[in-house]
Amino acid sequence: MRFHRPAISRLGVKLFAIILVVNVAISGLVFVGVSRSLDQGFIDYLENTQINRAQTLADTLGERWSRRESWQWLREDARAWEDLVQQLLWPGYSEPPQSVEGSLGDARDFVLHDAGNLPVIGLAPRGDKDDPVVLNWLPIEYEGERVGTLGYRAPYQLMADMDRLFLSRQQRNLAVIIASLVLASLLLAGGLGWWLGRRMRSMTIAARRLSGGDYSMRLSERGQDELSRLARDFNGLAVTLEANRAARQRWVADIAHELRTPLAVLRGEIEALQDGIRPLNEDSLHSLSQEVGQLEWLIRDLRLLAQSDAGSLDVHLETIDLAAVLKERLEESQGWLESANITLETAIAGPAFVQGDPKRLRQLWNNLLTNTRAYTDAPGRLKVSLSLVDNQARVIWEDSAPGVDSAELPRLTERLYRVDASRNRRRGGSGLGLSIAAALVQAHNGHWQASHSPLGGVRWTLTLPLAERLITDLALTKPEPVTLSPAKHGTKI
C-alpha cells in the first residue's frame, strides 16, 4: 500500500495565517494607540509650553512698563518687540529656530494691549479664513495694578504647523517599526508553520502506515514538548500493537499445535483400528475417549480465556468467607496430594470476607493444585497461608522444587507456555491452567505475582480486596469472633 506525502500541511497554513493575522491586528492597534497618544500628548505639551512662555513674557513686560510707565516705546519700534520676544523665549539664539515654517515663541503668536484694552503691538497672527485665530489672554500687572493684557495664540492652532515638525516624523518612524514587526511576524509565522507542519505531516504518514499494518514505524522523540510526548506515546502504541500481533500469531500457532497432537493420536488409533492392527475392544475405546476428553478440556479452557478477554466471563460475585472456601478445598485435596507424596501445610487466618464467586474460586484453587501436583517433585511440600494486610486478603501459595528461572517467572501465566523448552507433554496439561487462574484473579479485582519460593519452587502471592463488612469490623475495637457452619459456606452474608 502506497501513501502519497501531502505537499502542503493544512495545519501549518492555518497556524501561519493565525499568527500573521494576530500580529498584524496587534500592530495596527499599537499604531493607532500610539498615534493617538502622541497626538494628545503633543497638544498637552504645547499648552504647557505656551502658557509658561506667555507668563514669562507677561512678567517681563510688567517690569519694562515700570521703567517707562507707558507702552509708547513699543508703538514706535516694532523691531524692539520681536527682539524682546526672541531674547526672552529663545535665549542664546540669534533668531528663533526655523526648521519648518513657524515655531513656538514666534512674535506673531503674541498681541499686546494696554490697560484700556487698546492694541499696542502685535503683528497679524498667523491664520486663515477657514481657521480664524483664537487668542488666550493674560493680565500684565505691576505692583498689583493692571497695566496691560497679553494675548497668545491657542496651542491647538499651532498643530497645523507642528504636525510637520513632530507628529509626521514620529508617525513615520512608528510606521517603519510596525512594518518591521509585521515582517518579523511573517517570518516567525512562516517558520513555525513549516516546523509544526513538517512534524504533523510525519505523524500523519506514520499513523497511516500503522493503520495499514506496518507496526515498525517509529517517530523521532527529540525534545520535551507535547509533540515529543505524543511521538513517544505513538511509538509505545506501535510497540504494543506489534507485540500483540506477534502474540496473536504465536497464540494461533500454539493452539494449532495443541489441537494437532490429540487429533494426530486419534487419527493414528482410528487408522490402526481400520487396518486391523488394533482390536476394537474396551481398551482401544478408552484410549480414544481420553484423547477426546483432552480435546474437550482444551476447548473449554480456550473458551473461558476468550470470555475473559471479551469481558463476558460468567462471574457471580457475593460476599463470602475466603478463608472458609480455601480451607474446605484444601482439606478435600489433602489425600489427593498425599498420593503424589506431597505434604500440605496450611496457616489460614479467618474470617476474610471478600466479593467472590465460590465456583470460580474453587476453579482457581483446582488449577493451582493441579499445577503443584504436576510440577512438584516427590517428596514435595505445598504451603498455603492466608492473612489480612491493609484491607486486603493475602493468599501465599508456595511449593517445593523444582524452581523456575527469574527470566521465566513473568511468563508463567502466558497462554500455552511451558517451562520445558521441548514443550514436553509428559506431565500433562494444556499449558492454560495458570493463564485461566490469572483471568479468574482479574475477574475478582485481585492481583497476583510469581516469585521464588523459600521451599525451592514457585511462590504465588494473591491479594483480593476485603468486603466492606470486614473493613468496618476492623475499624471498630476488637470484633466478636465469627463462626460459620460448613452448611453455610458460599452463601450471602
Which strand order spans the largest sheet, edge to edge or round the barrel? 6-8-9-11-10
Structural class: alpha+beta
Count of runs of 4 or more consecutive helical residues: 10
Can you give the helix content as a percent range?
Answer: 40-55%
Beta content comes to: 15-25%
* Mean pLDDT over all positions: 75
Question: What would you call the quaternary organization?
Answer: single chain
Tell me what you see in this structure:
With 493 residues, the protein is of the alpha+beta class. It is 53% helix and 15% strand. The protein has ten helices and eleven strands. A five-stranded mixed sheet has the order 6-8-9-11-10, with helices on one face. Strands 2-1-4-3 form a four-stranded antiparallel sheet. It has a two-stranded antiparallel sheet with strand order 5-7. A hairpin with a 2-residue loop joins strand 8 and strand 9 (392-400). The longest helix is centred in the N-terminal third of the chain and has 59 residues, at 10-68. The two termini are 61 Å apart.
